[in-house]
Write a structure and sequence with these properties.
about 110 residues; mainly beta; three-stranded antiparallel β-sheet; 1 helix; 9 strands; about 5% helix; elongated
Length: about 110
Amino acid sequence: TTSMYGEGTYFARDASYSLNYSQEINNTKIFMLCKVLCGKMFTGSGSYKLDKWPKQANGLKYDSLVNNMNNPSIFVIHDDFRVYPMFIIHYQRGNSVKHGSKSMDDEKECMPSQ
């Protein structure tokens, strides 16, 4: 496999992007909503390996790599301790999902508010 923005664990800002990479069981997509500590970010490159991540002026590795510094939507993390899984989401396209007393049809609405 290739790593478009460098080796590490990939996260996306948008749930719709993650659906393309999520596991599917019985016509239900399963993925996690996580809090990710991104810290100091740097534009990623497929050439960055875990042991050769770009370094800041102070010699420390950048905390995360991103697809776009101005509007990042993909984040690559090299340390597992920067990730806190919050929810496992089960999603079926085209079906309403009941959340409390509210019916939600759009996966963006299924995300908890910040």
